[in-house]
Write a structure and sequence with these properties.
Distance between the termini: 35 Å
CATH superfamily of the largest domain: Galactose-binding domain-like
Number of strands: 17
Mean pLDDT: 90
Order of helices and strands: EEEEEEEEEEEEEEEEE
Structural class: mainly beta
Strand content: over 45%
C-alpha cells in the first residue's frame, strides 16, 4: 500500500443559488484501488447551512460530504474521512476526482479556497509510480498537474527518494515545456536523496508556463540497490 496526497488551491467564488455550483477536479495518475480516503475542504461562507459539498470518484460514484448542516455557522474547514467516505473503498484511484460545492440560497456568497485528497491505495508493484526500476533504459515517471495559468516567477521543488546508493540515480524534473536535471549520479554510496531545489537551480523554468503536466523522472543506472519515491512537491508562483 502507499499514500497519495494531492491538493488544489482554487480560490474561486461559489455561484449563488445554483444547482450546478462550483466544480473542481484533482487528477490522480497512480493506479490501484482505494483502501482509505480523507478529503480536506476549506470553504469561506457566512452561512454554511446554504451549502452542499459532493465528491465524485473517477468511476462515477458520488458521495455527499456536507449536506446543508451548520445553519448560520461561518465557513467549513474540515477533513472528511472514515464513515463519511467509506463508500469509496474499492473504487479505482486513477483519474479525475471532482469536488462540487453548491450554494442553494441567495444573498450570502462564499469561496472555495482549497481542497485536498489523501488516499491510501492498494496497487501492484509493477503498476505503481513509487518503485524505481533497475537497469539502463528504464525509468520511473511520476506525474502531477498544475491547473493554474500564467508564467512562472518563482519555483522550488522538493524530492524525497529512498535508495541505498544515490550515485546510481539520475533525476529530472519535466515541466510543460522545459526539463531540468536535478541529480546526475552524484553522491557515490550515500543513502537516500532528500533535497529542495530553489529558483537558482531551476532557472530554466522561470518565464515558462505553469499550467499542464509536470513529471519527475528517476532512472537507476545500476543493478542490486533498489529504491522508491517517497514524495515530491512543487511550489510555483505565477
Amino acid at each position: 500500500m502507499s499514500f497519495i496526497v494531492k491538493s488544489s488551491s482554487i480560490n474561486k467564488a461559489i455561484p449563488d443559488n445554483s444547482d450546478t455550483g462550483l466544480v473542481d477536479a484533482i487528477k490522480v495518475f497512480k493506479g490501484g484501488t482505494v483502501a482509505s480516503i480523507e478529503v480536506g475542504v476549506n470553504v469561506e461562507h457566512p452561512y454554511s447551512g446554504d451549502l452542499e459539498i459532493q465528491l465524485t470518484s473517477p468511476g462515477g460514484k458520488t458521495v455527499v460530504l456536507h449536506s446543508r448542516t451548520g445553519s448560520s455557522k461561518k465557513n467549513i474547514k474540515k477533513v472528511f474521512s472514515k464513515k463519511v467516505t467509506e463508500e469509496f473503498l474499492g473504487e479505482k484511484v486513477k483519474g479525475d476526482w471532482k469536488l462540487a460545492v453548491k450554494d442553494f440560497a441567495p444573498r450570502d456568497q462564499g469561496t472555495l479556497q482549497s481542497w485536498s485528497l489523501r488516499i491510501q491505495n492498494t496497487v501492484k508493484k509493477e503498476d505503481s509510480e513509487i518503485f524505481i526500476p533497475d537497469g539502463e533504459g528504464k525509468k520511473l515517471v511520476s506525474k502531477q498537474v498544475c491547473a493554474v495559468s500564467g508564467k512562472i516567477k518563482n519555483i522550488s521543488a522538493s524530492i524525497d527518494i529512498k535508495h541505498g546508493y544515490i550515485g546510481d540515480l539520475e533525476v529530472t524534473l519535466v515541466g510543460p515545456g522545459v526539463s531540468v536535471k536535478l541529480h546526475d549520479r552524484e553522491g557515490g554510496n550515500k543513502k537516500n536523496l532528500k533535497k529542495t531545489y530553489k529558483s537558482k537551480a531551476l532557472a530554466d523554468f522561470i518565464g515558462t508556463k505553469a499550467k499542464g503536466t509536470w513529471s519527475l523522472e528517476v532512472a537507476d543506472h545500476a543493478p542490486r540497490d533498489s529504491g522508491k519515491i517517497k514524495s515530491w512537491n512543487l511550489d510555483l508562483t505565477v
